[in-house]
Design brief:
The protein is an alpha+beta fold. It has 5 helices and 9 strands, in the order ββαβββββββαααα.
């Protein structure tokens, strides 16, 4: 069974449970926010975030922009639930959303609204082979802690609370580790928690090994981070 969902293509991957703030300044996404706010208060205000695989998001037609037919989106995305909206001048919005559930992209409609909409199939969140996710989680958690210590070696080293639920942990690792968009997209599309944790174990081994070779970084790694484009 499929469901129609408004889309917000981005150059990044959203995962269930993760917070995504956005500054909405383009007219078509202002319209998307308005449409969500017009929904009844007891209805979930949800839209789909899907990573751009290739192409440009918009093309110019006269004085206006429109979704480009050459845009290619990844097949699996994550819905974002609208949690907080701040209205700004000129119709802009600052919004806070939270990743809710994964979906597989179906037919995309480029004409029904100013923004893209699509038929989506919601994906289940199976644990995988019985007991395997629980067995993998402690090892992945230990590797993730080593990874965090490595990238924060030049900070005060303050610890933080990390989840022990295997599915929550798998999405936190996928979203937090400095992975390529391709790696993150593959992790989002992995069918179950155990398989995702197993893939992350390999990726974290790679990242920890790389960090051990570049400890002599002249500035804190956080200073090298490049902010993601808001939309």
């Amino acid at each position: 069974m499929t469901e129609a969902l408004p889309l917000f293509p981005l150059g990044s991957v959203l995962f269930p449970g993760l917070v995504l703030p956005l500054h909405v300044f383009e007219e078509r996404y202002q319209a998307l926010v308005r449409d969500l706010l017009d929904r009844p208060a007891d209805e979930t205000r949800e839209f789909g975030v899907v990573a751009i695989q290739r192409g440009w998001e918009v093309e110019r037609v006269g004085a206006f922009t429109a979704p480009t037919a050459s845009l290619t989106l990844h097949e699996v995305g994550c819905s974002a639930e609208l949690r907080q909206v701040t209205s700004l001048e000129d119709g802009r919005y600052d919004i806070v959303t939270v990743g809710r559930r994964r979906f597989r992209l179906g037919e995309v409609d480029r004409t029904a609204a100013p923004y893209l909409t699509a038929e989506v199939e919601w994906l289940a969140e199976p644990a995988g082979e019985p007991g395997l996710a629980d067995a993998l989680a402690p090892g992945v958690l230990a590797l993730f802690q080593r990874y965090l210590q490595g990238i924060r070696a030049q900070t005060d080293g303050t610890g933080e609370q990390l989840p022990d639920d295997p599915t929550v942990l798998s999405y936190l690792v996928a979203a937090t580790a400095s992975l390529s968009l391709e790696d993150q997209q593959r992790l989002l599309a992995v069918p179950d928690t155990a398989a995702r944790l197993r893939a992350e174990r390999l990726l974290l081994h790679r990242e920890v090994a790389l960090l051990s070779e570049v400890r002599a970084v002249p500035v804190p790694l956080s200073d090298l981070a490049v902010p993601i484009s808001p939309n």
